[in-house]
Specification:
single chain, alpha+beta, SH3 type barrels, 2 domains, six-stranded antiparallel beta sheet, four-stranded mixed beta sheet, 4 helices, 12 strands, 19% helix
């Protein structure tokens, strides 16, 4: 049985044999010694990392070590509330900071702002309503009860394996936004996230 270590656009950690193209974590160890998820996060430092960095090798879900989580791509990681890692993705982290604010915020400043925008005190994902026409590329939304990627004049249906169905972006509709508002602001300010090859 696959490990419960894949993350969807709602931030839910689930099981799937499908592989992700990006790894991340939620501030530490959220699994037990049987490699089962026992909490949704450890701290507010939710990051998104590359799969390989400096030839480091880890056994996934090693006891008492941070829990490796996996995403289809960066836009899913952003929708779940993760930001670029400052170590393994330094250029992306710097670009994200520059899109966030001209004063180049610290990681702590960004994490403090994103955390209440991604998860409520009762553990539910925070979402909000917005006109579809106002949303930048890279935003993930809920439309017709499914998660879709906003990309140019299209919407692309997310699945654990790839983006599958493509629709023309409908005009004059209000949608539920899955990507946290501070991250949408970064996308609007020019941050360009990595997207799965199936989006092209």
């Amino acid at each position: 049985m696959p490990l419960q270590n894949r993350v969807d656009p709602y931030g839910t950690i689930f099981r799937t044999p499908a592989r992700g193209t990006m790894m991340g974590n939620r501030g530490g160890c959220i699994h037990n010694d049987r490699r089962e998820i026992v909490r949704p996060y450890k701290s507010r430092r939710w990051i998104a990392c590359v799969l390989e960095f400096k030839n480091r090798h880890r056994v996934v879900m090693t006891p008492n070590r941070y829990t490796e989580l996996f995403f289809l791509d960066e836009v899913v990681a952003l929708a779940a509330g993760h930001r670029p890692c400052a170590e393994c993705r330094r250029p992306d982290y710097n670009a994200f900071r520059a899109a966030w604010s001209s004063h180049l915020p610290s990681a702590d400043e960004m994490d403090l702002a994103v955390h209440p925008a991604r998860i409520a005190s009762d553990g539910r994902k925070v979402t909000y309503q917005a006109p579809l026409t106002s949303l930048p590329n890279g935003t993930l939304i809920e439309f017709q009860d499914q998660p879709w990627l906003v990309l140019d004049d299209s919407l692309l249906l997310w699945t654990p394996v790839s983006y599958t169905r493509r629709l023309s972006r409908p005009p004059r509709v209000t949608v539920t936004v899955l990507t946290p508002a501070p991250i949408v602001a970064c996308l609007r300010s020019g941050y360009i996230p990595a997207t799965h090859e199936s989006s092209r």
